[in-house]
Design brief:
The protein is mainly alpha-helical. The protein has 9 helices and no strands. The chain is globular.
């Protein structure tokens, strides 16, 4: 159970980190510009959102990748009455996250093998597969997250960075990870979806040993990379916002 509790925790970290990065970028640059840059990730997430609506028995209306307003957010009308009151929002919240994660896995296998291989080279540079139960363990978790960031940056720096496959992978990784943020109006469904997914995966793994092996050996490096990417983007965004705020304070003091 420790593995699935850790999986749930890191998926929640991914969702809230992605939401924080998107909100931070939208406060620094026009939201329409941000959403235009993230268009590949938006396409994948929107397809997952639409699939969730269809599987829950709802109709899909007024769906678009970019709205006509200044924000340019993806649009899809929320049904007035859910056909499946509890399961419906969970499906709608889960499938965009699953779609983005699956596409990130495919992109890593096809384009980012060198980067991901370096990140996954050692267990010390991956997310822990069990949550800490002591204060010392919490600090160790924080130190491990910093080590993971360092490993990711070193892997990117030592990769074939000028080559287009690596550049394309990094661009897609940014788009897909940031678009793992829950859609507006379905945040509770997305959180519930993560907990439900962890329960379903744990049940399946008890019957299918290869499912647990897939999580531990194949999926965990991707999960570690996604968390490291989002934490790095969040850190850089906070730094840029702080510098801009400092410059504005100096400019207004004259």
């Amino acid at each position: 159970m420790a593995l699935y509790a850790a999986l749930t925790f890191w998926l929640v970290v991914i969702m809230f980190s992605a939401w924080g990065v998107h909100q931070m970028w939208s406060s620094l640059v026009k939201p329409r510009v941000v959403n235009s840059v993230l268009l590949p990730g938006t396409l994948v997430a929107q397809l997952g959102h639409v699939l969730g609506l269809l599987l829950s028995g709802n109709s899909v209306q007024n769906t678009s990748l970019m709205g006509d307003d200044e924000k340019g957010e993806p649009k899809s009308d929320t049904p007035d009455k859910e056909r499946l009151p509890i399961v419906g929002p969970i499906l709608v919240g889960l499938l965009p996250l699953v779609a983005c994660g699956a596409c990130l896995y495919i992109a890593a296998r096809m384009l980012g093998g060198s980067v991901l291989g370096d990140v996954a080279a050692g267990t010390a540079t991956q997310l822990p597969q069990a949550l800490p139960t002591t204060i010392a363990g919490v600090w160790e978790l924080l130190r491990g997250s910093v080590n993971l960031l360092e490993a990711m940056l070193n892997a990117i720096w030592n990769s074939d960075l000028p080559n287009w496959p690596t550049v394309l992978f990094l661009y897609l990784a940014v788009c897909l990870t940031v678009r793992m943020a829950p859609f507006e109006g379905n945040q509770r469904g997305a959180i519930g979806a993560v907990f439900l997914a962890a329960i379903v995966i744990s049940v399946l793994a008890s019957f299918i040993p290869s499912a647990r092996d897939f999580i531990e050996n194949s999926s965990w490096p991707i999960l570690s990379f996604a968390v490291a990417m989002l934490l790095f983007l969040l850190l850089i965004s906070l730094l840029v916002r702080g510098v801009i705020g400092f410059i504005k304070i100096l400019a207004n003091s004259r």
